[in-house]
């Protein structure tokens, strides 16, 4: 298996025109996830479909490192998303739309540059019993769909060494707008603490508006604190978030999925709360979560999501999964039940699928 992976890595690198590094420094990995999904509650009616990446985005990636001596290594990662139901590329057709970066790792920490996940998003993933996937995905409600999305282009990222259970993450990305260095600029950070069964994490993201005239007055700011405690028989999950500014919290589906007479407007001032459980037993695991969006704006467009999920491990690398979720929108809110990579079309969804990792 390892020999086949090395050969595949060399072939993929050759196809991209990159020089092949030492074979023992390269790993090929991937996920293929497909599920039957039924969505309901939107103005278009009930929709049944076969979808890719419901539980986790389907992908293929290459990662590796080179020992430079003195405790320092060069590292890289290239990860491409795809649609397993059609064969199309994911992330809008980007070759390495999920992640791509290169950097250095040593005693003082790790610095990487490229397209990378935001610390704010990774804080949300940590808190979510569904791992930001399945139809119970926290992205249906939480702010990562808006300001920080899940990834940043043009990113410089620093991750500190672990000291007494604490890790610091810092990110910065330029908007790269001609004649205006401030518009679209992004900054973020996270502070992560682990002690035995307890993990705490704080994430923050700040993004200037892409429009130069609004860059200093309409920037979006998102903060989240999350906690997970492993009791052995179950894991308890919780998070609380605060979101302010234009695009700080937007709809996943912007096509007016409920057919409102007036096009829905996303909140520019909101609070998020999440409570959840993961209950593993043998080859099985149950997941449950409740998420509430408290809109502090004049429209008071609150919403709540309740989700249940089940996973059955056929092996260490293959699982069957099923999930159900429902959103209660109020006062014209337009949140939809999506999955790991889809935005959804209504306020209810059910999925049954299979995932294989390699």
TrEMBL record:
It is found in: Cell outer membrane. One of its GO terms (molecular function) is porin activity. It is a multi-pass membrane protein. Keywords: Cell outer membrane, Ion transport, Membrane, Porin, Signal, Transmembrane, Transmembrane beta strand, Transport. Pfam families: Porin_4. InterPro entries: Gram-neg_bact_OMP, Gram_neg_porin_domain, Porin_dom_sf. Residues 1-22 form the signal peptide. GO terms for biological process: monoatomic ion transport. This is Porin. It comes from Massilia oculi.
């Amino acid at each position: 298996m390892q020999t086949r992976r090395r050969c595949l890595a060399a072939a993929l690198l050759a196809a991209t025109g990159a020089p092949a590094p030492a074979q023992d420094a390269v790993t090929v990995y991937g996920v293929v996830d497909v599920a039957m999904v039924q969505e309901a509650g939107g103005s278009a009616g009930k929709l049944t479909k076969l979808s890719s990446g419901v539980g986790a985005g389907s992908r293929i990636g290459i990662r590796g490192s080179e020992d430079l001596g003195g405790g320092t290594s060069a590292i890289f990662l290239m990860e491409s998303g795809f649609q397993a139901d059609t064969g199309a590329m994911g992330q809008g057709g980007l070759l390495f739309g999920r992640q791509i970066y290169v950097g250095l790792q040593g005693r003082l920490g790790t610095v990487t540059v490229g397209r990378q996940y935001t610390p704010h998003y990774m804080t949300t993933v940590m808190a979510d019993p569904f791992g930001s996937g399945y139809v119970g995905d926290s992205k249906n409600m939480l702010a990562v769909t808006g300001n920080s999305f899940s990834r940043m282009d043009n990113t410089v990222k620093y991750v500190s060494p672990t000291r007494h259970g604490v890790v610091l993450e810092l990110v910065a990305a330029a908007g790269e707008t001609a004649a205006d260095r401030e518009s679209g600029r992004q900054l973020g950070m996270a502070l992560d603490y682990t002690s035995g069964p307890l993990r705490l994490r704080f994430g923050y993201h700040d993004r200037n508006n892409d429009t130069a005239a609004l860059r200093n007055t309409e920037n979006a700011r998102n903060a989240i604190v999350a906690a997970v405690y492993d009791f052995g028989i179950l894991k308890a999950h919780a998070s609380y978030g605060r979101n302010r500014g234009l695009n700080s919290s937007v709809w996943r589906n912007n096509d007016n999925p409920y057919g409102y007479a007036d096009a829905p407007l996303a909140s520019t001032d909101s609070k998020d709360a999440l409570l959840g459980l993961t209950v593993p037993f043998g080859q099985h695991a149950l997941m449950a979560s409740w998420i509430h969006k408290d809109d502090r704006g004049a429209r008071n467009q609150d919403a709540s999501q309740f989700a249940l999920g089940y996973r059955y491990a056929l092996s260490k690398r293959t699982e069957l999964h099923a999930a159900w979720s429902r959103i209660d929108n109020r006062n014209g809110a337009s949140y939809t039940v999506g999955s790991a990579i889809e935005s959804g079309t209504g306020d209810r969804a059910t999925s049954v699928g299979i995932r294989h990792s390699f």
